Automatic annotation (TrEMBL):
<dbReference type="InterPro" id="IPR029056">
    <property type="entry name" value="Ribokinase-like"/>
</dbReference>
<dbReference type="GO" id="GO:0046496">
    <property type="term" value="P:nicotinamide nucleotide metabolic process"/>
</dbReference>
<feature type="binding site">
    <location>
        <position position="432"/>
    </location>
    <ligand>
        <name>AMP</name>
    </ligand>
</feature>
<feature type="binding site">
    <location>
        <begin position="131"/>
        <end position="137"/>
    </location>
    <ligand>
        <name>(6S)-NADPHX</name>
    </ligand>
</feature>
<comment type="similarity">
    <text>Belongs to the NnrE/AIBP family.</text>
</comment>
<dbReference type="GO" id="GO:0110051">
    <property type="term" value="P:metabolite repair"/>
</dbReference>
<dbReference type="InterPro" id="IPR004443">
    <property type="entry name" value="YjeF_N_dom"/>
</dbReference>
<feature type="binding site">
    <location>
        <position position="258"/>
    </location>
    <ligand>
        <name>(6S)-NADPHX</name>
    </ligand>
</feature>
<keyword id="KW-0456">Lyase</keyword>
<feature type="binding site">
    <location>
        <position position="319"/>
    </location>
    <ligand>
        <name>(6S)-NADPHX</name>
    </ligand>
</feature>
<dbReference type="InterPro" id="IPR030677">
    <property type="entry name" value="Nnr"/>
</dbReference>
<feature type="domain" description="YjeF C-terminal">
    <location>
        <begin position="223"/>
        <end position="492"/>
    </location>
</feature>
<keyword id="KW-0630">Potassium</keyword>
<dbReference type="InterPro" id="IPR036652">
    <property type="entry name" value="YjeF_N_dom_sf"/>
</dbReference>
<comment type="function">
    <text>Bifunctional enzyme that catalyzes the epimerization of the S- and R-forms of NAD(P)HX and the dehydration of the S-form of NAD(P)HX at the expense of ADP, which is converted to AMP. This allows the repair of both epimers of NAD(P)HX, a damaged form of NAD(P)H that is a result of enzymatic or heat-dependent hydration.</text>
</comment>
<dbReference type="GO" id="GO:0052855">
    <property type="term" value="F:ADP-dependent NAD(P)H-hydrate dehydratase activity"/>
</dbReference>
<feature type="binding site">
    <location>
        <position position="127"/>
    </location>
    <ligand>
        <name>K(+)</name>
    </ligand>
</feature>
Length: 495
């Protein structure tokens, strides 16, 4: 059974192992039966994706993931496909050994992989080398085989997880398979949706192997994928005061664009009023480009006070800088106690002067900013994005958006959501400024920080996908997202 990934609960590797054991102990489902079901599900996916394929290369490791591969190879052989079977090492015993024996009985002769071996011409490669248990970098013969598969050029179907990818964290510490499709089994593993993993998985299909839903009922998922959402229609008698007043604070000399993008995103996402506190030199440009923004010259904290008094929600950081001007405005804004979204230099200033937030707050760091906020380095953040996001939320008592491929949203109470949308074209200047304005607008419209962050991240990523679909990913700029954002917020479909 394939399940729409927007409805998926996400589990850790340890949780997946617990469910595996429970399937056997509580539901009388032997491991070998699950192995055969996994192979059948994967083979059906292969035929659905590549219906013209007649020649397969199946690569098996020594564990149960390899057992799935042996079973798939036997199924393909029975269907009349030409199958080449390569193994890193023959499994000694257990279910995988039994699967290998069944494969031999079907008429296939496994070939031991050796360095320098040439691979046959095939239409599809099946990766059944390593499953969810692998956390280290591939080395030696395994690494060489993965590199040979990459050089081959045929599309790869990965069973459960692409070999070399950490299914728990999304880290890819060394050579790893780049799959065109991944079929994962029983439950979705959280690491497949964030960090470096999405570049290796292709689309991820889940098959629950026809196990009863009761199997998962006693085990709460570790995280959840975001679902498509917008806001309901407004009341017919609504007025601008009902929808909040966002004050965007930032725009040091030379960075007017950052604060304009933030303010305009807040407007497009429904804030009733949007003011901008910025350097006086930027007013003419802002007024000419977007007169709906109420731009104010703020050269010091005395001029910021009246604006803070009128605002309901703050967006602090885009183009703020870390000099005396930016620091003074940052400190005054945070001390106001107003609900806020903090980004960019607002986060860098927070790393220098940490505080726990008592007002509703959303922090939106990229991995570099997250590393500074945690006092570590980027490699540590990316090695376990789930742990980093939760640590930030607990340390600062704020909802945290850890940006990047598969952005994470973490709450201080441990809740965590993963964004399944977005594309590489969004790795361009101004996207973060835009997201700050989006989330601030949703906060201003009375969403909680958790709700505003989840909805805002999803809208931002989906808008990026719609904009990329029109003209491609390369050359995508932040302002291309503004109209798609408005459409999505009002309930237009993503496709």
């Amino acid at each position: 059974m394939q399940i729409d990934r927007a409805d998926l609960d996400l589990y850790t590797v340890e949780q997946a192992r617990m469910l595996d054991r429970r399937a056997s102990e509580a539901f009388g489902m032997p491991g070998y039966t699950l192995m055969r079901r996994a192979a059948s599900a994967a083979f059906a996916a292969l035929l659905g994706r590549w219906p013209q394929a007649r020649r397969l290369l199946v690569c098996c490791g020594p564990g149960n993931n390899g057992g799935d591969g042996y079973q798939l190879a036997a199924l393909a052989c029975d269907r009349g496909l030409e199958v080449t079977l390569i193994e890193l090492a023959a499994p000694a015993s257990g279910d995988a050994g039994r699967a290998r024996a069944a494969c031999v009985e079907a008429g296939l002769t496994p070939v031991r992989w050796q360095l320098g071996m040439s691979l046959p011409e095939v239409e599809v490669i099946v990766d059944a080398l390593f499953g969810t248990g692998l956390k280290r970098a591939l080395e030696g013969e395994a690494a060489a085989l993965v590199q040979a598969l990459a050089a081959h050029g045929a599309p790869v179907l990965a069973l459960d997880v692409p070999s070399g990818v950490n299914a728990d964290t999304g880290e890819v510490p060394g050579p790893a398979v780049r799959a065109a499709l991944t079929v994962t089994f029983i439950v979705a593993k959280r690491g497949l949706y964030t960090g470096a993993a999405p570049a290796h998985t292709g689309p991820v299909w889940l098959d629950d192997l026809a196990l009863p839903a009761a199997l998962r009922e006693a085990l709460a998922p570790d995280a959840r994928l975001l679902a498509s959402a917008g806001l309901p229609p407004r009341a017919r008698d609504a007025h601008k005061g009902d929808n909040g007043h966002v004050l965007a604070v930032g725009g040091e000399h030379g960075t007017a664009g950052a604060i304009r993008l933030c303010g305009e995103a807040a407007l497009r996402c429904g804030a009733g009023l949007v003011s901008v506190a910025t350097r006086g030199a930027h007013l003419s440009a802002l007024n000419a480009a977007r007169p709906e923004l109420m731009a104010h010259a703020v050269e010091g904290v005395s001029e910021l006070g009246p604006l803070l008094a009128r605002a309901t929600t703050l967006a602090v950081g885009p183009g703020l800088g870390q000099g005396a001007w930016g620091h003074a405005l940052w400190l005054t804004a945070l001390d106001s106690g107003k609900p806020l979204v903090l980004d960019a230099d607002g986060l860098n200033l927070l790393a220098r002067a940490p505080r726990r937030f008592t007002q509703p707050a959303v922090l939106t760091p990229h991995p570099g900013e997250a590393a500074r906020l945690l006092g570590g380095d980027v490699a540590e953040v990316q090695a376990d994005r789930f742990a980093a996001a939760r640590a930030l939320a607990a340390r600062y008592q704020a909802v945290v958006v850890l940006k990047g491929a598969g952005s994470l949203i973490a709450a201080p109470d441990g809740r965590l959501a993963v964004c399944p949308w977005g594309n590489p074209g969004m790795a361009s200047g101004g996207m973060g400024d835009l997201l700050t304005g989006v989330i601030a607008a949703l906060l201003a419209q009375h969403l909680t920080p958790w709700q505003a962050a989840c909805l805002g991240v999803g809208l931002h990523a989906r808008a990026g996908d719609l904009a990329a679909a029109e003209a491609g990913e390369r050359g995508l700029i932040a302002s291309d997202l503004l109209l798609p954002l408005r459409r999505l917020l009002n309930g237009a479909p993503s496709t």
